[in-house]
Amino acid sequence: MALYPVILCGGGGTRLWPASRPSRPKQFLPMSGNRSLFQDAVARVESLVEDGGSIVVVGGVSHRQLILDQLAELDIEAQILLEPEARDSAPAMAAAASWILAQDPKGVAAFIASDHHIPDHDSFQDAVREATAAAAEGRIVTLGVRPDEPSSAYGYIRPAGEGLAAVDAFIEKPDRGSAADYIKAGYLWNTGNFMVAADVLLKQLSIYAPGVCAAVKASLPEPDGRRVHVLGPAFNGAPKISIDYAVMEKTALASVLPVDFVWSDMGAWDAIAASGEGDVGLHIFEDADGCLARAPDGVMVAALGVRNLAIVVEDDAVLVSDLSRAQDVRRVVERVKTSSPRHLDFDRPAPERLGAGARRFADWLRLRSLPLWSTVGLQEGAGFAEALSLDGRRLALPSRSLVQARQIYVYCQAARLGWTGPWRRAVWAGLDALSKRFTREDGAMRALAAPDGTPLDETTRLYDQSFLMLALAAAREAGYEGEELERQATAVRDGILAGALPNGGFKEAGAQPYQANAQMHLLEAAMAWEALSEDPEWGALVDRIVALALTRFIDPTSGMLREFYDAAWNPAPGKDGSLVEPGHQFEWAWLLARHALNRRAPDVLKVAQRLYASGKLGVSQRSGVAQDALNDDGTLRSGRARLWPQTEWLKAALLLADQARDGERTALIADAEQALRALWLYLTPDGLWRDKRLPAGGFVDEAAPASSFYHIMAAFDQLTAIAGAPGFESLSGLDLS
């Protein structure tokens, strides 16, 4: 028999306003000590996992990132089931029980509230083990705490006998006088923690709440080994009902185990104060007894001549309450709902809509970024700068051929989109630098040159050659001499084809020769030339790379695309083979969606949609940015977030929205708005950008890399391409003129 502790993360903590809000409820706050209540609950049950069991967390989809981040801080893994909508405890428990049953027909669940305070972990664990033994025999066992005082904040249980006994009755929260009578009669506090075999719970639910079972069963995802699953939309149809009403008050299997450890549901500020660890921040109490003070960094709370107060300060709201009235804070919250609804959650400015954000983006490019990088960021003979310092100075750094190619693409696209600045001079300078500094005798492009033009790295990378071909295509589309540009691009292409692998694809130079990323940019270049040239070899190359992606790169079960492979195009061994980059899920989704349109291939569009969903797993619910890396089970590998994944998210959301049905289109447009807002976090007012956002917020202090401009311009280009389509009327007329 394996035990599966299930942490239930429901509950909004209304009585703990203003600290607890819907986007950051009490279970994810440090209410008694340095760890959050959720983290305390996870730590409390970790040692209970044995015999093949595992921790399961059930929470809201909007709290996904909070759950993942706080588990990562503990270095503890869990299976995470996310509810698209809160439906109370019975559906949440049914979802967890169903997942457990699919893994282990004899599995026993210990359903644990995420927001309780139980400082004596050992006694709690002993009680759970004793209750679990009874649960394995078919009972549904709850823990009942022996009260130490009358309380109207808790429900009560009347046991049928001493020790572990059947339940005679569940009692709703009484008035204080009735609570005193219940204590004399041996009643117990109802903790809401349950031990029950997964199959037993589901059988009882099928009898007493069949609607819960039906909705949950329809919402369960297919098992695929991922650590994070979002329950399907059918979950929203489950009756909104607690486990007490659904099962416990009806079943003949209910038992209660009396326990004596200290317990609190931390439901109101008096309970937080009673823990003795609820004060947060700086405070001075002068002749002030029995008070609780909580304030953010930089705020001092001073109290003089008062007694038994809760003083809770947030950036946008302050609560001062007599601790004896802590249960009535919900009445204050009801008034806030009417008089100032924005204070129910943390104040966020109204999000910028897509049309307004896109036009601000156009102004930033036209007036700030394009002029800056074509003047300060350009030097005759040397070409484009590798990077500019954040105070707008060119840095004397070795230059990559990749940067010259990407900047040529940027300024050719700018010209096509109506920019009237010195784009010809910029493009010519880039082409001249490529020719004189980077082109080898064999016509291929070397990787790196010193500031004075001395070759530093003769390596010819597939990645770099792909961007050379893309730049040449952009130049031709902007009006440069077509035949010579196509001749050069064709020569580069044919050199690549000469080295084609017999099992598909092309090797890259360096430590990871079998990688998806280089193939992706080769696909982008081939698609650009296919649209411009009558040479059928470009289309054949496109089809070849798409086939490799569909058959080898993209996992048919998870829909994810990994980064690195072995010579047979199987995932590379070890951590290399399990790396999933959300930005590349989006980038491939965008390319495959374009290919699906060009080839009228709906099956390819479905693959693109799954890739997009995989990319969304890497978007932080907390910061709203696409992060750098996941593992192939969907868990977070790196919470750092570079600029370029935001642009790829925006491109993919826009293009997929244009091909979606109305409801899906609306959701994808909202995604595009979020992606554009994420991108704005990186852009500076003077035409530069930050590249690497840290998990805790803030950015790595470094120069703005020129290579990011390609991603930025490609995102704007997609905005203009979609302008005027259904749902995108706000983008009509968008350009750089």
Short note summarizing the structure:
The protein has 22 helices and 27 strands.
Question: In words, what does this structure look like?
Answer:
By secondary structure, this protein is of the alpha/beta class. Helices cover 41% and strands 15% of the residues. It is built from 22 helices and 27 strands. The protein has a five-stranded mixed beta barrel. A hairpin with a 3-residue loop joins strand 16 and strand 17. The radius of gyration is 30 Å and the shape is elongated. It starts with a strand and ends in a 15-residue tail after the last helix.
List the helices and strands and how they pair.
Elements: E1 3-8, H1 37-45, E2 56-60, H2 64-74, E3 79-83, H3 89-103, E4 108-113, H4 121-135, E5 140-145, E6 156-159, E7 165-171, H5 176-184, E8 188-197, H6 198-208, H7 210-219, E9 228-230, H8 243-248, E10 254-259, H9 269-274, E11 282-286, E12 292-294, E13 300-304, E14 309-313, E15 318-322, H10 329-339, H11 354-373, E16 378-379, E17 383-384, E18 387-388, E19 399-400, H12 401-416, H13 423-438, E20 448-449, E21 455-457, H14 462-477, H15 482-498, H16 516-530, H17 536-553, E22 579-580, H18 582-599, H19 602-616, E23 629-631, E24 636-638, E25 641-642, H20 644-658, H21 662-680, E26 692-693, E27 704-705, H22 708-722
Parallel strand pairs: 1-2, 1-4, 2-3, 3-9, 5-10, 11-13, 12-14
Antiparallel strand pairs: 4-8, 5-8, 6-7, 6-8, 7-10, 14-15, 16-17, 18-27, 19-20, 20-21, 22-23, 23-24, 25-26
Helix pairs in contact: 1-2, 3-6, 3-7, 6-7, 12-13, 12-14, 12-22, 14-15, 14-16, 16-17, 16-18, 18-19, 18-20, 19-20, 20-21, 20-22
